[in-house]
Design brief:
Length: 84
Amino acid sequence: MSLKDKWKETGKNTGRAFANFGKALGKTMKVAFTDDENMIEANGHRETANAWRETGKAFGQAGKSLGKAAEGTVDKVCGEEEKE
């Protein structure tokens, strides 16, 4: 995967993470202000818990892709300096 693609993936993953954050925050506010009993799923978990879990996973993935992109950038910069 090229360095450009790694940074593109980082941007997409970060965008997804913040989109999940907004959704989780919206669901939390809906539960907090409406006391909607339909928010409870069959397995006993609230939709809010699942939304926040997905948000955490998305931020974890964004962090991993950031690390890979940064590592590739450092390797490229350091490799060019060593050649000179």
